[in-house]
Amino acid sequence: MLLKRTNIEDKLRNFRDKTVSPDAVLKQVAAILDADTQHEKEIEAKLVHGRPHPENNFDHEFLETDRIYHLEQIRKICVDYRLRFLDTRYFKGNYPQQAVNSIKTLEKQHLITLEGFKIIAPSKLFKLKNADDPLLFAPIGNGYYYLVHKWGNDLHPLRKWLMLPFKSFLNLVILVAFISLVFTVLTPMGLFSKEDNPAHFWILLLFIFKMVASVVLFYGFALGKNFNHAIWDSKYFNA
């Protein structure tokens, strides 16, 4: 006579049913899921409505060094790429589930409740007061921040160079001068003078420079634009 093979799943189910009723199991699971859902809602509320918080009491043994950044390092990248570093309450984009899961994992690992979230993103992703690649941070203290999660698409490979004119006044003047020179070279001198005189070229260059500079200044004042170093941590749209 052959012995019947043992089904471990049946054994496990029989043992469970002897120790706890099915209704009790469902209630326990429901309670766990409700607690987890409530925790996620609290995290999302802190992201949307959270206030500045100087530091979080991280357990240094669990910190990953490649996720730690100083404020000056963040400032340098924001200025170079014309990004903003602001509290998450100004962020108008959506937070992916992975970001919430990363926060839950950190809180469980470090036995803390994270506060004071900040985010790096282009200005268009913030809901700013009037006056493509988000990175979510939590403050450690003393000017250091811990990278919690990154999502979205990477920035355009030429963004740093495209934003270079807005980095400083000197860069903007150089760009205006270059554009003026191109327009001057492309403009037929015969439209203004029958003589081929170098002085006429420089006069036309000066005229076009003033015209381009006026357009740039009008655009800047009309739209409240400012240079990168002035807006990287400003909550004002026209800062």
Question: Main traits of this protein?
Answer:
10% strand; alpha+beta; single chain; 239 residues; elongated; 2 domains; 5 strands; five-stranded antiparallel beta sheet
What does this structure look like?
This protein has 239 residues and is an alpha+beta fold. It folds into 2 domains: 49-150, no CATH class; 163-231, no CATH class. It contains 8 helices and 5 strands, in the order H-H-E-H-E-H-E-E-E-H-H-H-H. The protein has helices spanning 8-19, 22-49, 71-81, 97-110, 159-162, 169-186, 198-222, 228-231, and strands at 68-70, 84-87, 118-121, 135-141, 144-150. A hairpin with a 2-residue loop joins strand 4 and strand 5.
Distance from first to last alpha carbon:
88 Å
Total separate domains: 2
Number of strands: 5
Query: What global shape is seen?
Result: elongated
The tally of helices reads 8
Radius of gyration: 29 Å
Oligomer: single chain
Uncertain residue segments: none
Strand content: 5-15%
Could you outline the blueprint of secondary structure elements for this entry?
Layout: H1 8-19, H2 22-49, E1 68-70, H3 71-81, E2 84-87, H4 97-110, E3 118-121, E4 135-141, E5 144-150, H5 159-162, H6 169-186, H7 198-222, H8 228-231
Antiparallel strand pairs: 1-5, 2-3, 3-4, 4-5
